[in-house]
Amino acid sequence: MAEPVSDLVLVDDAHHPLRPATSKHYSREYAALASKYVGAPLDISFRELVGPLPASEYTHGLYPYPARLLRHIPRFLLSTDAVVADVDVVFDPFVGSGTVLLEAQLRGFTSIGVEQNPVAALVSRVKVSRGSHTHAATVLNDSLATAKRRRRAVKISPLLSRWYSSGALSALGRLAATAEEHEEEDRDLLQLCLALTARRMATTDPRIPVPVKSARNAMASSSDVWRQWVSESTSILTKLHALPPERPVAEVRTGDARDLTVWPNPEQASRTLLLTSPPYGAAQKYVRSTSLEAAWLGHAPKGKTVHLEHSSIGREHLSPQDLRLDASSVSSPQLRRVLASIAEKDARRGAIYVTYFVDMERVFRNAANVGIRRIALVSGDNHVAGGVLRTSQHLSDIIESLGYRRTVSLRDPIRGRTLLTSRKNGSPAPAEYIEVFEMANCD
Ligand SMILES: C[S@@+](CC[C@H](N)C(=O)[O-])C[C@H]1O[C@@H](n2cnc3c(N)ncnc32)[C@H](O)[C@@H]1O
């Protein structure tokens, strides 16, 4: 087993001193909770348990990705003896912007993440990258100089023209062309800086996570873009600099969690902890909230990012294949009844949630098929068609039906994902459930 690094990694950081918290302390807390658990969720506040964490810590605040996981949760779980016993690898099939991977890295675990949204996957890769800080500074500076000199920009996606002034479009296009000339880590770094700069220079309302037109930046010039690049570069470099120098490998796979090929192989899987916060049902905005950045990175050649939604779990735009499903497509008779009753009230909502649970069943089936022994799941419920859909309970039932046993269930009154779901028919109930499952009957 990989020895988790000492708590000093978390404490010994001159830039962002953290509250010292020993693994022994967390392990005792966890053991006390597990011993009290008799089936009903136990109320707990991870913010109180772990204590306040600095707003910008290591690379956590690298990018404002929606619905990020509260990092107190993986910090606690990954410091807890019972959760990390026999674990070599931490695996997050819905890695988003990489909160779990970074926390795993800080605790000394090798990790693997899967993410379907290419912008989030990019953020995750940079968040856990292990390249040299001096080299990163040179790449960012030199690329700005190259972009300023160049005449040609990338071919600009038709999606972008209405969201930028002509001066900003031209400068961003030249930065994008410069980034494309690089490879691997350097390219990631430049594309992340481009995505952040493009986000700031758009004529969008910064208070709304999806693009909505505003008067901001209507007259932005190339010089404004160059200045913004410098500011974003400085901020990225400061965050990268705060990372401890020696960290294990964290691999990000851009792909679909329903696809078994992106999962750890069976040999790794028996020593893998699956720790994840899956998408909510009706969480249609992961793709839309990053659509401009995706277009700058070349993912909207025809002016649309809707193709990215097809493999996005929780999607609202259903394909003809999705629409062929109905409540009978899920395995659990109880969930079938719940979904049929939603469909009676609102056929479209019914179809969206049937698709969601069918997809989630496929994902957890992969966990059982490769032989993952422990799953830590952070999930929430939804308000749907005038009632509460107990999404967490249904996900938990699916996992148990695959041969796992729930060993603890904690309920935290976390808020904050509301903006991500459709307001009328998907807004999550204001609590999250943190549950740990063990494969039953494993020797
Ligand atoms: C709740 S977010 C995870 C947030 C993450 N824990 C973080 O802190 O940034 C769920 C993620 O699942 C991703 N996702 C949706 N469908 C997916 C799929 N089929 N395969 C892999 N990732 C998917 C979404 O793009 C989103 O980033």
Describe the fold and architecture.
The two termini are 17 Å apart. The N terminus is likely disordered. The longest helix has 24 residues. The protein has 19 helices and nine strands. The protein folds into two domains: 314 residues, Rossmann fold (3-Layer(aba) Sandwich); 109 residues, no CATH class. 47% of the residues are buried. Strands 1, 2, 3, 4, 5, 6, 7, 8 and 9 form a nine-stranded mixed beta sheet that branches. The protein is of the alpha/beta class and 443 residues long. The protein is globular. Helix 7 packs across helix 10, helix 8 packs antiparallel against helix 11 and helix 9 packs antiparallel against helix 10. It is 43% helix and 13% strand. S-adenosylmethionine binds next to helix 6 and strand 3.
How much helicity do the residues have? 40-55%
Find the CATH superfamily of the largest domain: Vaccinia Virus protein VP39
Number of domains: 2
| Radius of gyration from the alpha-carbon trace, in angstroms | 22 Å
Helix-strand category: alpha/beta
Question: What percent strand?
Answer: 5-15%
Series of secondary-structure elements, N-terminal to C-terminal = HHEHHHEHEHHHHHEHEHHHHHHEEHEE
How would you concisely characterize the structure shown here?
By secondary structure, the protein is α/β, with parallel strands linked by helices. The chain has 19 helices and nine strands.
Secondary structure topology:
Layout: H1 8-11, H2 23-36, E1 42-43, H3 46-50, H4 72-77, H5 81-84, E2 89-92, H6 99-106, E3 110-115, H7 118-127, H8 133-149, H9 166-180, H10 184-201, H11 222-241, E4 250-254, H12 266-269, E5 272-276, H13 285-288, H14 291-296, H15 306-309, H16 320-323, H17 333-345, H18 347-370, E6 374-384, E7 387-389, H19 391-401, E8 404-412, E9 428-439
Parallel strand pairs: 1-8, 2-3, 2-5, 3-4, 5-6
Antiparallel strand pairs: 6-7, 6-9, 8-9
The protein binds S-adenosylmethionine (SAM).
